Amino acid sequence: MSWLSASLVLAFLFQQSWSDKSFEHLFSEDVSNISFPDNFIWGYASAAYQVEGGWDADGKSESIWDYDAHNHPDWFPEGQNGDVACDAYHKTDVDIDLLVYQGVKAYRFSISWPRVLPTGLVDNINEAGIAYYKDLITKLRANNIEPIVTMHHWDHPRILEEQGGFLNESLIVPAFVDYATLLWERFGDDVKWWTTFNEPKQTCGGGYDYGGISPQVRLSGVGGYICGHNVLKAHAKAYRVYDQKFRATQNGKVSMVIDTSWHEPASDSAEDIEASERQNLFHYGWFADPIVFGDYPEVMRQRVDERSRLQNLPASRLPYFTDEEKEELKGSYDYLAINMYTTDLAKWKDDDPIGDPSMSDDVSVTTYQPDDWEKTVTDWFKVVPWGARHLVRWIANRYGDGKGIIVTENGYHDNGNNLEDLDTRGRYHKLYLSNLNDAMYKDGVNLIGYIAWSLMNDVEWYAGWLVNLGHYHVDFYSPERTRTPKQSSVYYKKVVTTNCLVDVCEPAPRK
Ligand SMILES: *[C@@H]1O[C@H](CO)[C@@H](O)[C@H](O)[C@H]1NC(C)=O
Ligand SMILES: *[C@@H]1O[C@H](CO)[C@@H](O)[C@H](O)[C@H]1NC(C)=O
């Protein structure tokens, strides 16, 4: 067979298998009318850099994001950074009122590491920063809203980055453990839900490997794994400190928030099913396997070791844990957390050639979203509600759901300015929640909470406020940063106060 005819046959085969699975029947507008359980945790989420502002208020130092905003202003839309953001630092009472009005049971927010520890280290505690969070937590509690606190949502102190940040184990691991310990000492009596890290795949992949988020260190195929290794060690050591010093008296729950898109096999072929599994393991499993089972997924270990060997490297680009570290990691979670937005199809492909290392070559899977899937304003983000059900089902099957699973982020991208967003953002939450409801009642997944991203428009990192997900609009051009409800907030309020997605629901089945 000539090269040309071979590639024609190949192209034909590709087309064949692309069309041999139909997804149409999965895109249903039917909405479940079974109530969520009474104790379901409904909430809103946010992150310090995106809402607080007050970037240098009362002794706070620069985070890596402040540093980017001040030294690389061209990385943000003009003037759209976190210096003031939603000014949440000065608007605790306003935002508590909104949360109370919305009827949510939980508020997920992050603590800014440089606000409480300007040097990054516990030798210099900023009591004004501690007082800000103490006030927020006290007021949430007074209103029966459960704080769910993230310790690291991407914004570590710049001063730590100058010494290597997450690539420097001897710096970042002890610094994080000390920081976590301080937060438990100061807030642990009032906070029962903790997450050490938010989306370490982004912190490490985007931050230290392929770029896209601060600090944009580009060490392709190397930096991400080193960072991830240090994040996992810091998490496990902090978790064991909680076990030893705080759990008996504080009785809280600690986990790590991991994000992934769902990767559905592009066809029913064994190859595509394997590709989908591999892609899911390199994304969710990269962090979930270590905290649940104590080590990286086997397929990740094999592939990165093998490709490193073929690159004539002296050691694997994916570092190894010692037996002691595996023990610390294994079971270092009290619930599973997932941030989810969209779904890709995963298609088998031949291994990428051995060249300059990259994480995507290590996986060697083709992912794509068909053109006819519903778009949002963001390239990678199509509306795929059934993917939510498949994803939590996969997590429950692989890791077990006995400790419960919480969707810690889910929300809809647009330009943020449309107040009449019932048919876009409102519908997005309704359809995703309906699929999650099916996962609970049809598949038996122990889903215990859903935290929408987000209460209000915010600073979407390098996108400024050009892209947004809030249920409230924020006037970023007014010193008041006025919050105005969108229709999605009305629908979400109805859902969280009735546990029902439609007008009338059947009661939740008894467990
Ligand atoms: C890593 O951190 C250690 C401990 O703080 C420090 O002594 C060292 O200089 C750092 N390494 C780099 C490359 O900055
Ligand atoms: C819920 O939906 C089912 C199936 O469509 C229907 O039979 C039932 O009457 C509905 N329940 C309520 C309370 O509307």
From TrEMBL:
<keyword id="KW-0378">Hydrolase</keyword>
<keyword id="KW-0732">Signal</keyword>
<dbReference type="InterPro" id="IPR017853">
    <property type="entry name" value="GH"/>
</dbReference>
<dbReference type="Pfam" id="PF00232">
    <property type="entry name" value="Glyco_hydro_1"/>
</dbReference>
<dbReference type="GO" id="GO:0008422">
    <property type="term" value="F:beta-glucosidase activity"/>
</dbReference>
<dbReference type="InterPro" id="IPR033132">
    <property type="entry name" value="GH_1_N_CS"/>
</dbReference>
<protein>
    <recommendedName>
        <fullName>Beta-glucosidase</fullName>
    </recommendedName>
</protein>
<comment type="subunit">
    <text>Homodimer.</text>
</comment>
<comment type="similarity">
    <text>Belongs to the glycosyl hydrolase 1 family.</text>
</comment>
<keyword id="KW-0325">Glycoprotein</keyword>
<dbReference type="InterPro" id="IPR001360">
    <property type="entry name" value="Glyco_hydro_1"/>
</dbReference>
<feature type="signal peptide">
    <location>
        <begin position="1"/>
        <end position="19"/>
    </location>
</feature>
<dbReference type="GO" id="GO:0005975">
    <property type="term" value="P:carbohydrate metabolic process"/>
</dbReference>
<keyword id="KW-0326">Glycosidase</keyword>
